[in-house]
Amino acid sequence: NLTVQMSGIATLPNQRHAEALEAGFDFTIMVIGESGLGKSTLLNALFNTDLFLETDYEPPGRRFASTTAIQRSTAFLNEKGVRLRLTLIDTPGYGGSLDNTNCCQPILAEIHKSFEQYMDEEARIHRENIMDNRIHVCLFLIAPTGHGLKPLDLATMQQLHNKVNLVPIIAKADAYTDAELASMRARVRAQLQDSGVKLFSVAADDDDEPTYTLPFAVSCSVDVVKGAGKPVRGRAYPWGTVETDNPTHSEFVKLREFLLQVQTQHLIDQTAQVHYENYRASRLGDIVTSGPKETEETILSRIEHEKEQLLKKLAKTEAEMSQIFAIKVREKEDKLRQSEVLLAEQHDNMKQDLEQLKRKVEQSRLDFEREKIVLQQQARERSNTGTASKPTKNVARV
Questions:
Q1: Crossing angle of helices 276-290 and 105-122, rounded to 10°
Q2: Element (H or E) spanning 283, and its range?
């Protein structure tokens, strides 16, 4: 029978796997919510580290004057050879002003900025190492009012849902009973549906893949307390302990599994294939319809201007390199001079030691010669004394 060897195309997934491991991954999480809902605590608990510090209490005057800020934190994680550049974006000040009409604008500007940066990177000649700063998921924390979404939160979600993967989270879920939590979850879903807000569609490629129901209900803490006879992360109350990592107390474990174990690639793909492509098509459409038409003279002028800028940049770089080289040469010369001085001092010290040793050896030689002469004289005297006494003994015998 003829044995037919495999062509080898079955190894393509392994090749892609090796390539992905070598390149690493980028993942960006944004968290939005009013002050006091535990945004920083949630991010710190997700990754078991102090990525964000809790802000101190501010007086009412400062709180009302605050605006939505953007606070980024980047961490590089490595787990079993998989490298991940994780970027976390906090939005302190959201909903903290008397007039919150434009509190969503900094968030939208940050999303557009990330898309614009990626689009500029794609337009470059060399695109080997494009850093993906696009926001892959937005965790929206909902206050536990018991009455559904606040008008501000609903208006913000309406502006964000078609630009980023939106995942709502009911914060401080331990404030509800089971019945109240179910009612709150149903009311939030109804409000979002009536307002046309589309949440991230949870993909299920495999029948064995776990299912998730949005919004999540989470209660978390990074404090370590005693629960059920062992230390756990959670909050201790007079009536009991709410454990962060206990699935019966909170959906924190499900949220972490959703973000970092099951839906991570789906979130990245949805961002790249849907939200970013929508932004890119819109930007290119704006350029085609309203962009200025460049003539040949304008193009040549722009090229000359860019050439001048590049030459200036090159000259500046050369000057900086020359300056750095001169500094390095001076530092090297200083080190050589110091080494020469040190070697000269060592040479003088060794010369002095050698002269001193030479004098000691000469002195020892002279002492030896003197002792030798003295010993020779003593030996001759003893010899002469012995010879003179021998005849006297012979006469006595006669």
A1: 80
A2: helix 276-290
- Which among 219, 166, 211 has a CA at the least distance from the CA of 192? 166
Strand ordering across the sheet containing 216-217: 71-79, 82-90, 25-32, 137-142, 166-170, 216-217
Write down the pLDDT at residue 114.
Answer: 93
Yes or no: say if 137 and 200 are a contact pair by the CB < 8 Å rule. yes
Extract the tokens encoding 295: 């003539």
More confidently predicted of 314 and 18: 314
Task: Quote the crossing angle between the two packed helices 151-160 and 178-194, to the nearest 10°.
Answer: 50
C-alpha to C-alpha distance for 359 and 61, rounded to whole angstroms: 88
Q: Contacts for 187-192 with beta carbons within 8 Å, 24 or more apart?
A: 187/147, 187/148, 188/142, 188/148, 188/149, 188/215, 189/214, 189/215, 190/148, 191/148, 191/149, 191/154, 192/149, 192/154, 192/157, 192/168
Question: Are 74 and 87 a contacting pair, CB within 8 Å?
Answer: yes
Give whole-number Cα distances, 371 to 238, 295, 352, 357, 364, in Å: 101, 112, 28, 21, 10
Neighbour-count burial of 183, counting CB atoms closer than 10 A to its CB (0-12 exposed, 13-18 middle, 19+ buried): middle
Give the residue among 157, 150, 141, 156 at the shortest CA–CA distance from 46.
141
The pair of structure tokens assigned to 270 is 């949805």
Per-residue tokens: 328? 């390095």
pTM for the full predicted model: 0.66
pLDDT of residue 204: 57
